[in-house]
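Justification of computing resources. Each target in the renewal requires a structure prediction run like the one illustrated here; the chain below, 305 residues long, is used simply to show the kind of job we budget for.
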Amino acid sequence: MAYKVFIDGEAGTTGLQIRDRLAGRDDIQLVQIEHELRKDAEARRACFAAADVAILCLPDAAAKEAVVLAADLPVRLIDASTAHRVDPDWVFGFPELTPETREQIGAAPLVSNPGCYSTGSIAMLRPLIAAGLIAPDEALSINAVSGYTGGGNALIGEYEAGTAPDFFLYALAQGHKHIPEIMARTGLEVQPVFAPSVGNFAQGMAVSLPLHLGGGRSLSSLHGSLAQYYAGAEFVRVREAEEIGARVDPQALNGTNMMEISVHGDDAAGCAVVVAVLDNLGKGASGAAVQNLNIMLGIDEGAGL
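Resulting structure tokens:
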């Protein structure tokens, strides 16, 4: 039996990568819309009606409109936008979040795909808060660098034209759209200082969490808590700093749905940096959507990944 899947917004960066991951599978039949009708409400509604699951790869406002368009249809939805990531009616689609999350995704009619920066941030913070190694009211900072594909077609165009800088920081006014989901899904009570940046490479991401040590917080306790939390996880690995080496490469996992977390620093200096590396279009977007799709359909979680 082939499940029918409609990608609403297939022509965008995330949509194209989801399509590529699904196109060769014999258990998936893509429901596709004529290019000239991709904004036609009646044609899109017909695609929603024909699909078992639809994946929304749209700007926030358009994603909300799509939900209304499909509201009375039996199609299940995965939203790759920011629109529903803190909405209580939607299951947050990070299967490794808690022991119950995978089952919740499997039963959900509405699943919100996490953001790329938030995937790395939540993956580091949630286990350490649960272990009592980070207090919910602790003042934290999160730094990150992403490939330019995370900025959408306009930014991609700048880099392809050679008009964008090799590196820049942005959203320093602390209004980045991923901050609410980071706080909501980790239990943080104080907003972290978030400093995202973009480098002159297409895909890849490294998210880093600097921490002072002491009071039971050591390199060993940080690593051990993370390793225990993700023991047995298919797509999250906790690695020793020595395995990573002196340089952390944000492009190391490009083309995969993997995320690797490592703990660096020096106990004597009292300083540590926890780092998560992932493909911003893999585990940070299209790969995560396919992983959630597989769980919702009750098939091998790693199919196509």
